[in-house]
C-alpha cells in the first residue's frame, strides 16, 4: 500500500492518498481544502481515486470533499452518523475557522463502529472514537499495522475537546479503548503533524501517561 500525504489548508491538515499496490484502487482521506492541489497531486501520480473517506466533520478535514466527489464522480464515506450536526453547520464552521464560504453537504454513507471497509485488496476496520467530535472514526489496517487517526491523537498530544459536543473524558476513553488496544508497533497517521506509533504515545504522550494533570 502506498501512502501520500498532502498538507492542505492554513491548518496544514494531512490529507492522505492511500493506494492499494495490488489493485491500484485509491482513497482520498480527509481532503480538508485546496482541491486544486489535491487534483494536481493525483494527476501527477496517475492516480484515479475511487472513494473519499472522512474521519470527522471539521471543515479543515472535509472542505474539499464535495468538490472532489463531483470532480471524480465518487462517493464520500464516513464518518459515523453522530457527526451530522458538524456537516449541517459547515457554513458556520467556515466563519469559525476563517475559511471561504462553504455550502453544507452530507456524506453518501455513514460508517458504524466495527465495520470493515475495503480499498482494493486492503481491509480497514472502522473504530468509533468520540470525544474530539461525537462521530469521529479512525481507520485501522491490521495487515499494514497502521491507523489513520484524524484528530483523536497526535504525536505528544490529543485532540481539542473545547468545541461543541467535545468531551475530554470521552476522548481519553476512546484513545484507551480504540488506539492503545493496538500493538506498540502500529503506525499512527494523525490529521496534523508528524506520524507516530502506538508505543511512542503509550509511553511518552503526557495526556495518556498521566505525567500532566
Ligand atoms: Zn478536528
List key phrases describing it.
single chain, 213 residues, alpha/beta, Metallo-beta-lactamase, Chain A, six-stranded mixed sheet, 8 helices, 14 strands, 27% helix, 29% strand, globular, binds zinc ion
Can you put this structure into words, describing what you see?
The chain is α/β, with parallel strands linked by helices. The protein has a single domain, classed as Ribonuclease Z/Hydroxyacylglutathione hydrolase-like (Metallo-beta-lactamase, Chain A, 4-Layer Sandwich), CATH 3.60.15.10. Helix content is 27%, strand content 29%. The protein contains 8 helices and 14 strands. The protein has helices at residues 35-44, 59-62, 65-72, 84-88, 90-97, 168-179, 198-204, 206-209, and strands at residues 2-8, 13-19, 26-29, 51-53, 75-80, 109-111, 116-119, 122-128, 137-141, 146-150, 153-154, 157-158, 187-190, 196-197. The strands form 3 sheets. It has a 6-stranded mixed β-sheet with strand order 1-2-3-4-5-6, covered by helices on one side. It has a 6-stranded mixed β-sheet with strand order 7-8-9-10-13-14. A two-stranded antiparallel sheet has the order 11-12. The longest helix is centred in the C-terminal third of the chain and has 12 residues, at 168-179. The radius of gyration is 16 Å and the shape is globular. It starts with a strand and ends with a helix.
Amino acid at each position: 500500500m502506498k501512502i501520500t500525504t498532502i498538507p492542505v489548508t492554513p491548518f496544514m491538515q494531512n490529507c492522505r492518498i492511500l493506494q492499494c499496490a495490488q489493485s491500484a484502487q485509491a482513497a482520498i482521506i480527509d481532503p480538508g481544502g485546496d482541491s486544486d492541489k489535491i487534483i494536481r497531486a493525483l494527476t501527477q501520480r496517475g492516480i484515479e481515486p475511487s472513494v473519499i473517506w472522512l474521519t470527522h466533520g471539521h471543515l479543515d478535514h472535509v472542505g474539499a470533499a464535495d468538490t472532489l466527489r463531483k470532480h471524480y464522480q465518487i462517493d464520500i464515506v464516513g464518518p459515523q452518523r453522530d457527526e451530522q450536526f458538524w456537516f449541517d453547520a459547515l457554513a458556520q464552521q467556515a466563519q469559525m475557522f476563517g475559511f471561504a464560504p462553504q455550502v453544507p453537504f452530507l456524506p453518501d454513507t455513514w460508517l458504524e463502529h466495527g465495520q470493515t471497509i475495503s480499498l482494493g485488496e486492503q481491509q480497514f476496520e472502522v473504530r468509533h472514537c468520540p470525544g474530539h467530535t461525537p462521530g469521529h472514526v479512525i481507520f485501522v489496517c491490521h495487515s499494514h499495522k497502521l491507523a489513520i487517526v484524524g484528530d483523536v491523537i497526535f504525536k505528544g498530544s490529543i485532540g481539542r475537546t473545547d468545541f461543541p459536543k467535545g468531551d475530554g473524558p470521552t476522548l481519553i476513553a476512546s484513545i484507551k479503548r480504540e488506539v492503545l488496544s493496538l500493538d506498540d508497533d502500529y503506525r499512527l497517521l494523525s490529521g496534523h503533524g508528524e506520524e507516530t506509533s502506538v508505543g511512542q504515545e503509550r509511553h511518552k504522550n503526557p495526556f495518556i501517561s498521566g505525567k500532566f494533570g
